[in-house]
Amino acid sequence: MKAIRPTGSATCRAKRALLKGDFRKALLQLAAAALLPGAAAAAEASSPPSVQISGELKTWHKVTLTLEGPYAREEDESPNPFTDYRFSVLFTHESGSPRYRVPGYFAADGRAAETSARAGNKWRAHLAPDRPGVWTYRIEFAQGKLAALDPKAPGKPLAPWDGLAGSFQIKPTDKSGRDFRGKGRLEYVRLHYLRFAETREYFLKAGADAPENLLAYADFDGTRSLKPNRKPRRGEALSAGLKTWAPHIRDWRPGDPLWQGGKGKGLIGALNYLAGKGCNAFSFLTYNVGGDGQDVWPFVEPTDKLHYDCSKLDQWQIVFDHAQELGLFLHFKLEEQENDDNRLGNQVRFVPAALDQGDLGTERKLYLRELIARFGYELALNWNLGEENTLSTKQQKAMARYIHETDPYRHPVVVHTFPSWQDRVYPPLLGEQSCLAGASLQNSWRQAHQRVLKWVRASEKAGKPWIVANDEQNPADSGVPPDPGYAGCSGQASEGGRTYDLHDIRKHTLWGTLMAGGHGVEYYFGYKLPQNDLNCQDWRSRDRSWDYCRYALEFFRRNRIPFWEMTNADELVGNPAHDNSRYCLARKGAIYVIYLPRGGRVRLDLRGTRGRFDLFWFNPREGGPLRRGAVRTVRGGTLADLGAPPVDPEQDWAALVRRR
Fold it and tell me: pTM of this prediction?
């Protein structure tokens, strides 16, 4: 149950309102106490409707429309405020374009993050306006059985709310730096990288894939673990109860958001830490009942999939808003393998937690619509159909299409699946016939380069280039190990009897992905090591790995490397097999990035080009400015010897070769 702050009974509040002569408020309070069923709705209908526009009225900022509509409770069955009211707002720029039909949602009392309210008459929709000037709105409000799930479903227009219209003025954004509100929406533009609409910058990501149950946070309303002190299943991390994110409370700063008198410091501080390390992404499950954690769900109760927890979701929204201001990309993982339809081999075993047994039915449509309505205005995100997803191709396509048609901002849709299922799952989803925009890969850390390259090229051949990221590193028990010395860790792990460490992750997962033309990486922490995929609440456990991520991102950004115009060309450095000996990313005749995991000398095939090229070296272990070696320039038309790195030639280095 939610912890509702005591404010006095509805009956007492009604008496106080009567003493003050506020008969309308008294009537509403009596209705809330269930003394006069339906009286609240009658009172609202007899009053002039109120529409409030709030937020910073600037481009790319969150603009909120709040309507005083019909009174409802989260648990109402008929009408159900989540399924049976179709509330949406048509926002239009004065020029006529753009135009967004934004799904709205029931918001209880409009302050549920603070009050834990379960009832009220506030309904909301969020716009992220992309142009300055005058915007108009027109409210669409209808009631009918399951009307919210389909814009074409029968519904009776509700007076006096349906048809309400108005306007507001939007000014240009005043944000800069990491804050996404200074960059604009991150959009899929039919390339292998996403691009910010305002600045036209292209995006490479690096950040945290763990913990998957990041939202299993003690400070969120209605959040608890369904498996306390239970022995873990094989291949599953030990549950440690709800997270406090206590190690990151020190990273919270005055002025950062909180709720209910001081809640939220730990998780808000964790996001501050991750952004401060130079990372720009993190992922999380929004539903894991039946899965590993069993501690994250958006509903009022874990098995009630038709009624949503307004205060919990408002608190999630506070966290996500802060992440976007910090420049952190939101990777929504919509379910995990255990709570999709669990289609393993030829035997189908339905889990009670599955949404419509994997089909696009009432539960799944409502789930997707609620998440899009509440969080779709965020600027940098993707919708992932599910971690280790085992839905059928038909189910995946239906789910992706519903997201695409419901999300007014057309955020990219991606899918993750088992390593051994990639050749089975991905090919039918390639090309124009699918609403998928990318793949989220799980592979052995040493296979990142080859697998990313495979799907980059396969998608391009199919006519619709995918954004492809390496988001989970096997072996499943270890993933990316903690730093040496953290909680007594050696910084090493093993795979198939062979030892690896965070330096191998840097060389072959991070740089291997980027040099294959990948969108970026997120780091998975396994299930055996300290701060693992379920119990992690200290991102400092991988502090050095985040440094290596920052160095790589800064290399591309500071040196203005046009990676979105470049393709993998391992064969130009004598690696036609695309193994892990050396990597090359190139715009032939103009610019080349060569990465040497084991250092040494290398030749670059510049035959067929003309002119002189400058040669610089970059240290991926320490970051910093470019360096010069013994060879400073090379000529086109030759098989050019780049010489050796300036120091420590046996260590990994990146070479930048740029035409003058």
Answer: 0.91
Q: What is the CATH number assigned to the segment(s) 180-563?
A: 3.20.20.80
Compute the Cα dihedral for 440, 444, 449, 450 and give only its sign: negative
Distance CA 294, CA 369 (A): 22
| Domain range summary for the chain, segments of one domain joined by + | 1-46, 48-170, 180-563, 566-659
The residues facing 567 across adjacent strands are 586
Pair type for strands 583-587 and 567-568: antiparallel
What DSSP string runs through 225-283?
Answer: -SSTTPPPPTT-PPP--SB--GGGGGG--TTS--BTTTBTHHHHHHHHHHHHTT--EEE
H or E element, residue 403: helix 393-406
Q: Is the dihedral of CA 86, 87, 90, 91 positive or negative?
A: negative
Mean pLDDT, the chain, integer: 92
Strands 63-73 and 119-127: antiparallel
The CATH number, out of the four listed (2.60.40.10, 2.60.40.720, 1.20.272.10, 3.40.50.300), of the domain defined by the range 48-170: 2.60.40.10
CA angle 234, 331, 92 (to 5 degrees): 150
Name, in order, each residue with C-beta under 8 angstroms of 101's C-beta and a sequence gap of 6 or more: 88, 89, 90, 91, 140, 151, 408
pLDDT for 312-353, tens place per residue? 999 999 999 999 999 999 999 999 998 887 554 433 445 578
Quick check: helix, strand or coil at residue 595?
strand
pLDDT per position as a tens digit, 33-87? 443 434 444 444 456 689 999 999 999 999 999 999 999 999 999 999 999 999 9
Instruction: Please name which of 523, 520, 449 lies closest in space to residue 481, comparing C-alpha atoms.
Output: 523
Phi, psi of 313 (to 5 degrees): -70, -30
Residues sharing a CB contact under 8 Å with residue 649, sequence separation 6 or more, in sequence order: 599, 600, 601
Rounded to whole angstroms, the Cα distance separating 156 from 327 reads 42
* pLDDT of 339: 85
pLDDT tens-digit series, residues 247-301: 999 999 999 999 999 999 999 999 999 999 999 999 999 999 988 999 999 999 9
Q: What is the DSSP letter of 341?
A: T
